[in-house]
UniProtKB/TrEMBL annotation:
Keyword Disulfide bond in record: no
Taxonomic source organism: Kitasatospora cineracea
Segments forming domain Signal transduction histidine kinase subgroup 3 dimerisation and phosphoacceptor: 210-277
Protein name, UniProt field: Two-component system sensor histidine kinase DesK
InterPro entries: HATPase_C_sf, Sensor_HK_TwoCompSys, Sig_transdc_His_kin_sub3_dim/P
Pfam families named in the record: HisKA_3
Region (Disordered): 1-29
TM segment ranges: 39-57, 69-90, 102-120, 126-156, 168-189
GO CC annotation, single: membrane
């Protein structure tokens, strides 16, 4: 099930091996850290913001403090940075109790207050880090309280230490705004997590509903047929005991006919169960693409009944959606967005429904289509449709179009 590939292999977070859960470095907002590599990557990104500690470092190197004060300031700054980075580890480690998560935050606040009073206004910058960490560590509305409290303490310390107004404004505004921005980011991350869980639940419910439909169909089909076979079997036994061979033979023929019809009904029900549907495949696509950190832009009409689209043609389009999404996940190197749209078009021989799936990955390579696309083309040909594949806009990405004929009339029956 491969598509035309480029020379570079696809790299997605859900794959095993070098890019799998044990080897990938990439981590995303709202996604738990699973490996040491991801934790190191997160620490590296977080350490970039430590560049703003250049003001306290510059204050220590100017020589305006005694050697003892400079040494104490360096130790305090190192402890502050260690607490700042340790919060990343603690937050991503479920083994730490909630109370222990507050200890580094309290230490950061204490160091910020002490150094601002003893070493000067350059150390007021530490309050910005404390505000951000309070927004991240404190749960719920306590995060907002923590940000406002940190900003309030900063204002008190700045005013009582007689810092100039320009310094108070230039540090106070980032202290407040960075904390509020981090609160908004936390809310966004929580919403993303809830959306992933909701998508997984929708896919699970869709599959459960299909199983219940199959169970109802089998109960209705087999209940009636097996009851009829049992009754005719008893009647056949009585006729044989009475020596009425011709009548018994007729009942046996009826039993054979009922059994054959039951077998055909069961095969039809099972094939209907095995045939994918567009709503189910759309829910599965959301889950698969979300796990690969690919944004899905889906046409809401995919979940609606389309006039003229028969069940067989709809099933083939569902297969096309499944194959296209699988190709994006497995072979769409660098893809961050996948668009799925369902539309209609007029051809010379009639009206067609068109399912189009486009990603913004590396695009098709020079190799031939794999078994997955070949099989999909055969499925479409069986219902009178066709498959079209090509590079997307300006050669970037991959475009798959599946066309199936629409039946005349107001419904697809």
């Amino acid at each position: 099930m491969s598509r035309m590939q480029t020379s570079a292999p696809a790299r997605h977070p859900d794959q095993t091996g070098e890019d799998g859960p044990e080897g990938r470095w990439t981590t995303y907002p709202g996604v738990p850290v699973d490996t040491r590599r991801q934790l190191l990557a997160k620490l590296a990104w977080t350490s970039i913001w430590a560049l703003y500690l250049a003001y306290p470092v510059q204050d220590l190197t100017t020589g305006q403090h005694t050697p003892a004060a400079s040494a104490a300031g360096a130790v305090a700054l190192a402890v502050f940075l260690a607490c700042y980075l340790s919060l990343i580890v603690i937050r991503n480690h479920p083994g730490f109790r909630q109370a222990k998560r507050y200890l580094p935050l309290a230490a950061m606040a204490l160091i910020a207050v002490t150094t601002s009073y003893t070493l000067g206004e350059a150390w007021l910058t530490l309050f910005t880090y404390t505000s951000v960490c309070a927004a991240v560590i404190l749960p719920g509305r306590l995060g907002l309280v923590g940000v406002l409290a940190t900003t309030g303490v900063f204002a008190v310390v700045g005013l009582t230490s007689r810092s100039d107004t320009e310094t108070l404004v230039s540090i106070g505004l980032p202290c407040l705004m960075a904390g509020l921005a981090m609160l908004a980011m936390q809310r966004l991350v929580a919403t993303m997590r809830e959306l992933r869980e909701a998508r997984a639940a929708v896919a699970h419910l869709a599959a459960s509903e299909e199983r219940l439909r199959l169970a109802r169909d089998l109960h209705d089909l087999l209940g009636h047929s097996l009851s009829l076979i049992a009754i005719k079997g008893e009647l056949t036994g009585r006729l044989m005991d009475a020596g009425k061979a011709e009548a018994a033979r007729a009942q046996v023929a009826d039993i054979e006919q009922v059994a054959r019809q039951s077998l055909a009904d069961v095969r039809s029900a099972v094939s209907g169960f095995r045939r994918p549907t567009l709503p189910v495949e759309l829910a599965a696509a959301r889950t698969a693409l979300a796990a690969s950190q690919i944004e899905l832009d889906a046409d809401p009409r995919l979940a609606e009944d389309r006039p003229g689209l028969g069940s067989e043609e709809s099933g083939v389009l569902a297969w096309a959606l499944r194959e296209a999404v699988t190709n994006v996940v497995r072979h769409g190197a660098g893809a961050t967005r996948c668009a799925v749209h369902l539309d209609e078009t007029w051809e010379e021989d009639g009206r067609y429904a068109v399912l189009e799936v486009v990603d913004n990955g590396a695009g098709p390579g020079k190799s031939a289509a794999g078994n997955g696309l070949s099989g999909l083309g055969e499925r479409l040909a069986q219902v009178g449709g066709r498959l079209e594949t090509a590079a997307a806009n300006r050669g970037k990405g991959f475009r798959l179009r599946a066309l199936v004929p629409l039946r005349p009339g107001p419904s697809g029956e």
